Amino acid sequence: MRVARVGTFVYTLFLTSGAFAAPTITWQSVGVGGGGSLFSPSFNPHNLNELFTACDMSELFRSTNLGVTWQTVPFQEIVGNRGSCVQFTSDPNILYSLDYSLEDSSNVTRPSRSADGGTTWTRVTDPTGGESYTLLADPASTTRLLLSDYSALYFSNDSGATWTTKYTAATGSGLVLAGAFWDGATIHVGTNDGLLVSTNSGTTFTNSGSNGIPAGQNMISFCGAKEGGTTRFFALTGATADVFAGVQPEGLFGTYQTVYSKDVGQPSWTQRTTNLPTGSDNSFVFIACAQNDIDIAYVSGQRSDESPMIYKTTNGASTWSSVLNVTLNGNVQTGWAGHQGDRQWSYGAGTLGLGVASNDSTHVAFTDLGFCHLSTDGGANWTQTYVNPADENPAGAATPKGKAYHSNGLEVTSNWALAWFDANNMWASFSDIQGTRSTDGGATWSFNYTGHTLNTSYKVVVHPTTGVGYMAASNTHDVYETTYLTDGALNGGTGVVRFSTDDGATWQVMRNFGHIVYDVALDPTATDRLYAAVVHSGADGGIWVTNNASAGASSTWTQLTDPPRTEGHPYCIRVLNDGTIVTTFSGRRTSSFTQSSGVFVSTDGGSTWADRSHANMTYYVKDLVVDPHDVAQNTWYVGVWSGYGGPFATNNEAGGLYRTTNRGVSWSRIQQVHRVTSCAVSPTNANELFFTTESEGLWYTSNLGSPTPTFEQITSYPFGTPYRVYYDPFVSGRIWVTSFGHGTKIGTISAPSSVTAWVALGGM
Predict the structure, then answer these.
(1) Dist. CA 352–CA 21, nearest whole Å
(2) Separation of alpha carbons 683 and 688, rounded Å
């Protein structure tokens, strides 16, 4: 039976009014959907059409129509991650979850509460000091909560206003809070130390042990149900040596031991594995059930071929049967990933989340390394929830390759850059899903191309005369993000420059550098000249050039002289209309940041370089943008990130948007934000600029010509880490925003973008 779903994904939010008129922007997600890790699916028992899921790229997603469309809960309200499993209560308006928001430039994890059904969120008291691991709420109350950190279990009976420590882990492995079953005054909590029981509404907890579970096994997942006079528990175990507080689902695939059940009143747990697959390569990591059905439960994990698996019992765990048939997509309606599709089932691999509606065992959802799928008939049929349902592929047939898809809002991958071959043909440079192509101006996207198979395309530039596209690509993702700054993280990467003569349909290798290639740039003064930014701290890292780019695979390349102070981490290359080369080098870390970042200028083809860096730019610089309204190209904007660790005060307070009007001879910081990545100046309005940040969203000004522009956060853009902004070269009033983990959004500006006139800056 097909899950009935209808709808499209477009939503409008409005900006708050500041000291100037900010635009009203309607946002639309575009892309192929999915492709990144999703966790913690959770159905609303008061409205089974509503569910939440979280992403480790910081989104908490919400759907009110069974995954037909998804909305992102604004990052200003709550920042999601693996543990952000939304907890429902007896009141449909009162929800709880874990919030991973930044505080003082550091990630902390704290319990949070919503009083309006998940629209707005407020942190409650945190007994863990920002190190919360798991949060569970009593579904029959609005006030009772359990919370764990590495080693302690906390209880609150006043909605998180106060907490009391109820249990401390028995070993240095910490406390794994595997699940809980609430039954009035009696509370059962599954942990790696055993089953904790309170019979006095949480006043005290006693460890009832794990009788029946052999030594060397510990609980990793636990659930319970009550029906009539029977209360039944289900549990999964893993090898003791591999079970510790904070262990992730993918870290448990190889450690699974077995499945158990136990009825309250029975003296011990009973192993329940009849018909479950055996062998160490078939691993379960989750067990889940509705709390009102003692007969039905589900276990999920990963098969030996790295595809997801889900088994179901209908007789209280006496026997199990498979309910997810991925062979030829037997009972699954797919998006672009599936049997013989653009990606096989092994792309998503094993389940990273399993959710069953607490009051209806027919509603089940699972998430994995790329996608979310759900069933409303107890696993008899499954459907994808990451592309528009009008585009999905039927069950029982191979998933087609090269098909174009519309987004439904579940965009969870990193798009570094966009390129237009013409009004219809576009390329989006992604990590993990490699890159996507559109042939209809960005309405739909596909993997309908050949010749590019590396993990990431970072940049594509299109020659204005020949139409040839040139790509910077690598097997290494997330270059120059905070986790990819060391030689160990970057020097082992490989990369190439590719070229395409047919609008991105086919790609060929132009030069295999054997190292990450992060950027490519054309020279407007020499039609056959192309530059490439090669990442490596050794001799090969830096800026390379070819003067016969039209030769394609036969082109010859030369490495330019290294700019002063640099250590092989080039970020962007800009070539001005007079042939001047401008480049930024990004951060490099050993025990702290090295002073090898900055802005560098060459007026002799890269033979010599001038260091044009502000003092705050010597640690961690990102994008450089040339103002399109300055004919002399003297006005540039540079995004700077604050560092971390390190002995230099400027390293930790350097972030912001910087401007020069004299090609870097002097700079002014026109907005101080912790980390600015990039910006874009309107091609038609010299006073309008958007800039992007890490974790602080999208920002805007309409008085850029002022010596001290006024900036305002665009609160209608819901994601904390946009990456680049593009003004559509073919559609007036439309911007595109790429992101580190939220795909691509189109913004349609439907109101005047400025009310104050300023004279555009000039300079020498």
Answers:
(1) 44
(2) 9
Q: Residue 63 falls within a domain, yes or no?
A: yes
Going by the DSSP 8-state scheme, the letter that residue 424 receives in this structure is: S
The two three-digit tokens of residue 180, written as one number = 């809980």
265 with 289, same domain: the answer is yes
Same domain, 77 and 114: yes
On whether both 151 and 231 belong to a single domain, the answer is no
- 653 pLDDT band, cuts 50/70/90, is confident
3-state secondary structure of 753: coil
Determine the Cα–Cα distance for residues 571 and 481; give it in Å rounded to an integer.
11
Contact 679, 693 (CB under 8 A): no
| 336-360: average pLDDT | 98
Report which secondary-structure segment, H or E, holds 473. strand 469-474
Position 114 scores a pLDDT of 98
Same structural domain for residues 252 and 392? yes
User: Cα-flanking dihedrals φ and ψ of residue 616, to 5°?
Assistant: -80, 0
Same domain, 51 and 153: yes
* Count of structural domains within the chain: 2
Task: Transcribe 52-74 into DSSP letters.
Answer: EEEETTS-EEEESSTTSS-EEPP
Residue 483 belongs to a domain: no
**22 pLDDT tier (thresholds 50, 70, 90):** confident
Q: Are 287 and 236 in contact (CB under 8 A)?
A: yes
Decide: 349 and 368 in contact? Cβ < 8 Å: yes
Range of the domain at 272: 176-352+369-400
d(CA 114, CA 77): 9
CATH of the domain at 53: 2.130.10.10
| Cα 335 from Cα 395, distance rounded (Å) | 11
Q: Which of 168, 201, 224 is the last residue of a domain?
A: 168
- How many Å from the N-terminal Cα to the C-terminal Cα in the chain? 69
Each residue's pLDDT tens digit, 520-569: 999 999 999 999 999 999 999 999 999 999 999 999 999 999 999 999 99
Q: Alpha helices, DSSP H only, in 376-466?
A: none
Residue 380 · residue 2 · CB < 8 Å: no
267 exposure class (CB count in 10 Å sphere: 0-12, 13-18, 19+): exposed
Tell me, rounded to whole angstroms, the distance of Cα 123 from its chain centroid.
22
In angstroms, rounded to a whole number, what is the distance separating the alpha carbons of residues 243 and 175? 9
Cβ atoms of 519 and 533 closer than 8 Å: yes
User: What are the tokens at 148?
Assistant: 């764990």
Spatial separation of the C-alpha atoms in residues 56 and 33, rounded to whole Å: 15
4: Cα separation from own chain's centroid: 28
Q: What is the full DSSP assignment across 713-735?
A: E-TTS--S-EEEEEE-SSSTTEE
The answer to whether position 672 is within a domain reads: no
How far, in Å, are 204, 455, 639, 685, 709 from residue 476 at the CA level?
A: 50, 6, 23, 37, 37
Nearest to 384 by CA among 61, 68, 81, 70: 68
Which whole-number Å values give the CA distances from 753 to 22, 119, 188, 692, in the listed order? 6, 28, 57, 17
User: Using CA atoms, how far apart are residues 452 and 473, in angstroms rounded to an integer?
Assistant: 8
pTM over 0.90, yes/no: yes
Question: What distance lies between CA 491 and its chain's CA centroid?
Answer: 24
Residue 627's pLDDT band (cuts 50, 70, 90): very high
Could you tell me what percentage of the chain is helix, strand and coil, using 3-state DSSP and rounding each to the nearest 5?
5, 40, 55
Q: CA-CA distance, 157 to 95, in Å (whole number)?
A: 15
Exposure of 256 in the CB half-sphere (CA atoms within 13 A): 30
Alpha carbons 437 and 216: distance in angstroms, whole number = 50
